[in-house]
Amino acid sequence: MKKILYALTAFILIITSCKKENIQLPDLPGKKPNALSGTSWKTISSTSVIHYNGLTIEYDLFSSMLPCQKDNVSTFLADGTTMSDEGPLRCNANDPQTSVNGNWTLSSDQKKLVFSTTVPNVVGLTLLNCEVLQLDSSTLKLRYTTYYNGPETVITTTYTKVNKS
Q1: What are the structural domains of the chain?
Q2: 137-146 pLDDT per residue, tens
Q3: CB 104 within 8 A of CB 113
Q4: pTM
């Protein structure tokens, strides 16, 4: 079970802080990226709920993140890519301060956000379909489900909007 928790934590960190190559996302019907285009966000909470052999295990992923990961900022660029900024605290001095790390598409009803990545990771995801639970002027809250090694795992992550100057 610890392996699954570490894998999920690693995945959250990979999604928010790794350099990734660009790939083309399939268009969602009625694509409307303007609600997120040009906005920047910082993670303020992330939890997982694992359903395994009749058990429900809740885990606070955010609490296991390092301070140098918690200060990272993700920006949704108008061209459909996402950019990560390492923030003031960098986990590895050799990492670039900013990097383009994937693509995004927001559905026209603003209820589905799709991310893509070509970076191999511990959970093997290359396309992440998120349910948008909240999207307003200050908060973005996403939820997605994985079935890594069998158990259903539901990840919910909340971001706060960052006003970049």
Answers
A1: 2-162 (2.40.128)
A2: 999 999 999 8
A3: yes
A4: 0.75
